Every structure is written in C-alpha cells, then in structure tokens.
Request: fold
Amino acid sequence: MKFKKEKRNRERVRLNPALIFLILTLIVMVISSAGSVLKLESSYYKVNIVSGELETKVEKIYNLFNRTGIQYLISNLLKNFTNFTPLGSLILGLMGIGVAYKSGFLNSLNKMIASIVPRKTLTFIVVFLGVICSMFYDVGYVLLIPLAAILFIDLGRHPSAGICAAFAGITFGYGANIVPNSLDSTMISYTKRATTILDATYKVNTNGNLFFMIASTIAISYVGMLVTERIIIPKLGKYNFEDYKEEIERVPNSTEKKGVIIALLTVLLVSIPIIYCIIPGLPFSGLLLYLKDTRYVEQLFGNNSYFYKGSVSIFSSLLMLAGLVYGLRVKTINNNKDFVDGMNYYLKDLSAILVLIFFAAQFCLIFKKTNIGVFVVSYITNSISNLKLSGIILVLTTFLIVSLSSILVPAASTKWAILSPVIVPMFMQSSLTPEFSQAVFRAADSSLKGITPLFNYFVIFIGFLQIYTKNKDKNITISRGISLMIPYTIAFTFLWLAITIIFYFLGVPIGLNTTVTL
Reply:
C-alpha cells in the first residue's frame, strides 16, 4: 500500500510537457543573463565571399532576462508561435491525410500492401521512407509520421511504434539518402568557401558523398527496423484497439481495390507534369526550379527552390487527390461537404497539441535569440583550431564535436557555417578530401539530433505520441519521448561512426570520382 501511494504521488507531480517548455524557457533566459553579465564571448573564422580571406566573427550571449528581453518576449509571443516552422506545414499536411484517411483510401491501400509484404519488411520500408523524406524535411515530419501511425494501426500494431520508426528514419537518417539533396546544397557552398583558404582552384564535387549516402541509407533502414521490432515495440507494450476494430478487421472488396488502383494511377498521371517542372533545359520546364542558382541540386533543393518550399503543399495535395478519387469511386465521398469534412478530420486532433506547440515555439526561438548555442559551438571550434590533429584522430574529434554541437544547435547549416572554415582546411592538410569532411559532418550531425527538445520537430514527435495515447489523462512527457529515442540514438551513433571509420580505412570511393584522400 505504501508503495502504491508513493507511486501515485510521483504521478501527481508529473508536469505537462507544455509547462516543461515554459520552465526551460525561463531557465534559458536566466542563463542568458548570467552569460551577459560575465561578458562571455567567443569567435570563429568565416570566409569573405568576395576576397576569400578569413575574417573573425565575434559571438556573445544576449541577455533576455532584463527589461529589453522581457519586452521582446511579450511582444513576440504570437509572432514566435505563428512563425514556428512546423505549424503551418502540419496543418496543411493533416488536411491531405484527413481526406485520404476518411475516404478509406489509406486503410484499403495498407491492407493491400500488408497482404503481400511481411510486417518487418514494412517497418524497414517506413524507416527507409523516413530517410528518403528527410530530403524534403517538413514532408517527413508532417506526412510520413501520421501515415506510419495509420499503417501500424491497420496492421494491428502499436501506432507509436510507427511514429518512432518514421521519426527516427527522418532525423537520424538526415545525413543519408540516395541522391544529393538539400543538405548537400547547404554544405557545398560553405565547403567551397573553406577550400579557398588553401586551394582557390579546388572544385567541390556535388556527388562527392553519393556512395557514402547510399550505403548509409541501407544500413540505417535495416538497423532502424531491428531497433523498432526488438526494442521499441516490446517497450511500448499492448495497445487498446477498441476504437479501431473496424479498420483492423476490414478486408477490401473488389470495388475498393479497383478504387485504390484508379486513385494511384490518377496520382501518377498528375505527377508527370510536376516532374516535368523540375527538369531543367526542356521547353517550358523548370517552373518549380530556382534557375538563378548554378547547380541543379541548389535549383531543386536550395532555400529559394519553389519545389522545395512547396513540397508539403504538393505531397499533401496528391494525398488529397488520391482520397477524393477513391472516395468518389467507392461512394465514401458523395458531395463537397464530405470532401471538406475529410480535410477537417485530422485537424480536430491538432487542437490537443496546439498549446504544446505554442510553448515549444517560445523555447526554441528564445534559445536561438540568446545565441547560447552558437556561442558554445564557436567556442569549441575556436579551441580546436589551435590543435594539431590529423588522420583518424581528426576524424573522431570532428565526429564528437559535431555530434555534441547538434544538441544545442540542431540546424546543420548553422553548425557547418561555423565549423567548415576550420575543419575543411584541417582535413586538406591531413591529405583528406573536403568531401570526406562533409561525409564525417553529415554522419555526426545525424547522431544525436533526435533527443534534443531544441530540435523544432521534436515537439511534433511528442504531439503525435500524445494524439495516439489511449490514456488522455496521462501526458506524454519530454522524458518519455527521449527515452523512446535513446535506443535509436545509441544504435545510430555507433552505426554512423562505424560507417565513417570503414570508409576511412578501406579507402573506397565515397562518391562519384571522389575518394577519402586527396
């Protein structure tokens, strides 16, 4: 009895994650005040785009626990919320999923796939698709995660396992893929500037990490499947499928199967002109490319790319189209009201996590405003610039620094902008290619990002776990989310490190016409 009473007491003080984010925000403000009072400063090198010369940039911590800081916080509460990156994408994505789900398209499609594909293979596919979707970033988090939850429910499996597998694939597989993508677009520009410090004629290969990426994609998908099946699913325990009995037991009839096929063919047909719009050099093509950029990877995945910026809209619309065509075929959508109700269907669950997103937005953006993360990373970078590192020690040190930096600065572009002017020349002086420095960075950057609340999309992960929890009175805490990601973090950190070391010692090409050494 005493044990049960103590357990109940512990449960009473379990804080809602929204309040945790609020407390963390206040702590960050206090730390920023201390850093400002102590006048903490750090610096790092950046390459002047015009002259190619190294310049020193000083970083300091900005105090937000004072009159000005409090004024900023109060006046920007709404702005921080509405400008929070995942919010708009989440609403748009769930509209497409709602139509596809409410019409019955997703259930019929999942049943047809499950009838020919083993369960473990489907888990592998979810993680694999997570890696692929990471090139579009928002698409994976706001579309693939709920789709994976729906798939697992239709299979009679815990939906949180699907959520974990998808989130892990997107986040820990960010550095992998099967084609150069947005990460390459970001890194190459900084790497090119860094190479001019030692060799102004060096040309960074856009496909310089391709083999490294493909090998990593396969390995991550397989290891992700193993972690999900052997650790996460047993850890989650049993799930109450009382509300989903109809979806689990239903078997698609011939009309529904034909509806799925017609819907998929329609989506394929509509995708053809979209694909045409991202192919350069053809008559009236390139509509969705930012043609002012020189490299194709930047035209397609750069920050100015119309395709990249509109990827959530495109994929959500395709899902909506598939649901509409299927619904009209099988008579689950009979009028425009049914169609609009479908768009609203998943948004009702969003209301449960809007408060969580509000406070997470304040925490992430206030932390960024204080500049604490950039200060720490630049301090570490400045410290290693004076060290004489080479060979495997340089590789391991870089991996460690980038991994730990990802906890405070999840954005890859910000980290590489600070690290590249130091790391790239050190690799070149050690007879290692700049492309290999990128490979080490992308591996390390993907190792720990999934367990930091400072990562904008971590709150999306927590939110979806909350949506699918059966006990609505029991909040999914931040610590619970982290604990579910810890097995993936350990497995993928060792995997990424192993892949990096294997390529280093074998000396095999890491990309097209690119090796580890100069």
